[in-house]
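User: I'm preparing a small set of examples for a lab meeting where we compare how different chains pack in three dimensions. I only have the primary sequence for this one, and I'd like the structure in token form so I can line it up with the others. Please keep the answer compact; I'll paste it straight into my notes.
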Amino acid sequence: MLEYPITLKPIFSEPAATPPLGVTLPPHWRWLSHQAQTYEALQNPDIDVVVNTAMTGDGKSFAAYSPVLLDNQVALGMYPTNELARDQARQLSEYVSYFPQLYPPRINRLSGEELELFSEQEGLTKAQGIARRGSNSEVLLSNPDMIHYLHRGAYLSHYDNPDKLWNRIDKNLDQFIFDEFHVFSAPQVASVLNTMLLIRHTNRTKKFLFLSATPDLQLIEMLERGQFRYQVINPVEAGNYRYPESEIEKNSLLSQGWRQIAREIEFNFVALESQGQASEQWLRDNGDRILQQFLEMPGSKGAIILNSIAAAKRLVPRFQALFADHGLTVGENTGLSGKQAKAKSLQADLVIGTSTIDVGVDFKINLLWFESADAGNFIQRLGRLGRHDGYEDKEGFHRFDRCVAYGLVPKFLAERLFEKESAPLTVGECYERTVFNEAIRDEYRQINDFRGYYGKWGTVQSVKLYYDLRDSQIRSVYTDSCDRLRRDCQRVFGTSFQRTQALIKASQQQWQAISGKSNNPIAEEAYRFRGSSPLQCGLYDETEGVAGDRFKTYDLPGILSNLQIEMWTEAGFMRRLQQMDEAIAKGRFRYCLGFMKLKGYREERLNWRFLYPGSLEVVANSWQVQVLTGVELWQPENPWIGGINVKLKRQGLVSYVVPLPMREVRQRLRLPMHFSIYPIADSGSIHTTTPPYSLAIGQAALLLDVLAGCLRR
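Assistant: Understood. Below is the structure token output for the 713-residue chain.
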């Protein structure tokens, strides 16, 4: 293991040279350049879409909601995680307290779980619950999933007009905000574009705002094709950032109104061998060293961000025991952490988490240890550090003296960055953040952008929206809208409805021939926002301290690899759920494959594979998305796998089978870390060490379909 230390310079953001006219901010507030440009663009009647790519921590949220705070507009904010939506609600409430208004904006959150509980408590249908929340909010914080399904009629009955809900919601809104947009993959981007086109052709002019520190060139390209009038606000290209090296330079910028948005960071690359638990093992071995950082800098706050939930869960008790003797607290924040554990973790001295904390949540920390899977993931996680001078608690304000980060990276990356000829970085040197980020993007793994998805599968949603508008109950209202929507969708996605309709028909006929059923699982998968979860299981987490937070869901592949579980019946699970005093949303457990008690987390990851009862040769060599039945799991030492297989074999799985081992497919296609692709064997290869086939399931099957040509070549 080697370490490569460098220094990242602080970042200052430029104040607006000419603040918006006729607008008064609270005392001591001042517009930054990108904020003023964003506000003015949102007021400009000749602009439909605004894309703000300011750096992390540069006040994009205030820019987004400035029309609400200053002009009483109504906005819908969409966030990729519930944690981020919760954080934004807190931040917006702080903003409102600085803006004395006769009628302060009402801020409400609405996730799927909150909608279910709210509707039950009020005796409403989900459609009525959405309508009431929407009409009683000036700011509604939700997720793009819910808005997607709202515009696809998911909350309506067969007797309702298809536009009953979205027409009412859209009319009430002035602005649609998509935050952290760079985390979305092609299916989600396609969904957002389809929804924007629907709103454009069925309602008066609306504003769409995209916030992301990483410009999305595909999005810009498709906005142009759709003839949206857009403005990109890119402070990096505009030269709105400075990177001072001395206190004199810093003080000079501050005196001119520049705002510091990131502190200087002492960054250390830790080069590790490329093996499964290298980062976790390094953290175990260096626990005393990590503790020493806190002892040397009293009042510090830190975070450890990992790729694996199981690794984070295993490390939490170890660090809790290590830190407890010194009066320091350790919290956890993962996808399997309960609500109270997540909330409490934000106050801990050290929080250990996963992707639930690396997307946008505003942590006040000065110490960071993290691993990453690709360049974007690396830059995103580093962005959690250096955003604040300190934090305040009941004992007063604690100022951070230094910001220190450790990037736990593969050895090959460190060698590319520092050891090769013409290496972009040198040990001990200082770098501007833009130069540093460019070096990471050039030398680290870039994941696939799935560009081909839009033309083949993105318009499946377009066709559905088109035929919804042609419903007999509303056809006369939207006659012109239908034609314009069809024209723009074909132009944006670069294909024809005729080709897409042929694709939908072929997939339906294929499934009907296999099953005798008239539905269309492949098209239904393309309609969804994030795809279905056919392998989701219900968990009763006995390791969770808070009783109400013990009911969770988790995907079966993660359970097979990392969890110690005991099988439970659905009746037993639901009976225990009904016995809870507090209300718990039950909808997420409706389609679970199995129900289990979570006992603990394995120290070593277990191997397993999918198994197909016949030969996969014909299936794999067809190179197409298809619905597979009869698939089961193979893990010989597992005593409960048979019960799961009884259910699994009856399911039709939207699948793409490739005649190559999984590791090779992942590497050649640059697939994302959590891409749903797994090893699968058939009756002739069940005992091979490495299964010769790979299986992508659900939405991943559609994504793999548009890349498979690379593998065939």
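A couple of notes for your slides: The mean pLDDT is 93. The two ends are 38 Å apart (CA to CA).

User: Perfect, thanks.
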